[in-house]
Amino acid sequence: MQAVTTIAAVRERVQAWRREGHRVAFVPTMGNLHPGHVSLIETARRYGDRFIASIFVNPMQFGPNEDFAHYPRTPQQDEGMLAKAGCDLMFMPDVTEIYPHGSERATRVEVPGISRILEGEFRPGHFEGVSTVVAKLFHIVEPQIAVFGEKDFQQLTVIRRMVAELCMPVEIIGAPTVRDADGLAMSSRNQYLTSAERALAPVIYATLKQAAGRIEAGDADFASIERAGCEALAAAGLKPDYFAVRQARDLAGPAAGERDLVILTAARMSKARLIDNTRARRP
Ligand code: AMP
């Protein structure tokens, strides 16, 4: 695997691959890789034959009081994991390569509506940062395929909408969430948990599954399901920001005949804010 830090080096490599007729699959990340990220490369294998991962902690998607400065950075370990996973090219730019005029003054991409609900309500500007950096990375890499985790379900929905509306010639693939044995979704932010909090954290997925069970059994009282979810998380000592039942295709409130739903939640413990979701199909 080759590791590069400049846009020019990425373009040179990718253009050579394209001339040779390869299908290029791209996995954007913020690094501090875990098996969830590695699974995205494995998914990418089913769609492409040359693989690029980017590692970039994107300042634009962090709020002023968020963990940008402290976000875990483990570049050497990441490089080893990507090489082992069969990645061909690792792109690890610094902030000035991506934002030569500073991230605050950069041209922005905004996907309206969907970026302002759920996570967007609690993290103003977050999805604008995500859609902007992903649009830039797509222009740099020009992949035919890009893989994102369903762990960040709203992010995946925002990216799909952006790609459709800006007519970007890239196919977006969603990959299933990788979890620890007790159900906790893997996340770089799990490191912020104390051992007591780590022991409690599986309640998030357990509560989501309970809600999915009610929906799959025919319960359509979504307000009651949402309330019960918040109460269960609070009873376990977490502080839920939201626990919401939505349509999977657009994250709107479930319409009467809509069967494919998703339950999304974000909950805070002392230092960590964790998000997770699960799908539920109405009978
Ligand atoms: P991040 O480094 O947190 O920005 O995540 C980079 C990509 O990895 C995103 O598409 C995430 O949705 C995905 N991802 C993060 N955690 C997991 C997980 N536990 N399972 C599957 N994909 C994940």
Explained architecture:
The protein is built from ten helices and nine strands. It is globular, with a radius of gyration of 19 Å. The strands form two sheets. The chain has a six-stranded parallel beta sheet, with helices on both faces. Strands 7-8-9 form a three-stranded antiparallel beta sheet, with helices on one face. It folds into two domains: 2-175, Rossmann fold; 188-281, Pantoate-beta-alanine ligase, C-terminal domain (Pantoate--beta-alanine Ligase, Chain: A,domain 2, 2-Layer Sandwich). It is α/β, with parallel strands linked by helices and 283 residues long. Helix 6 packs across helix 7 and helix 9 (203-216) runs antiparallel to helix 10 (222-235). Bound molecules: adenosine monophosphate.
Summed up:
Helix content is about 35%, strand content about 20%. With about 280 residues, the chain is of the alpha/beta class.
Provide keyphrases for this structure.
single chain; 283 residues; alpha/beta; Rossmann fold; Pantoate--beta-alanine Ligase, Chain: A,domain 2; 2 domains; 6-stranded parallel sheet; 10 helices; 37% helix; 19% strand; globular; binds adenosine monophosphate
Shape: globular
- Count of discrete alpha- or pi-helical segments spanning 4 or more residues: 10
Q: Can you give the mean pLDDT? A: 98
At the fourth CATH level, what is the homologous superfamily of the largest domain? HUPs
CATH class of the largest domain: Alpha Beta
Radius of gyration using CA atoms only: 19 Å
Termini separation:
47 Å
Tell me the major beta sheet: 6 strands, parallel
Q: Could you say which small molecules are bound to this protein?
A: adenosine monophosphate
- Unreliable spans are none
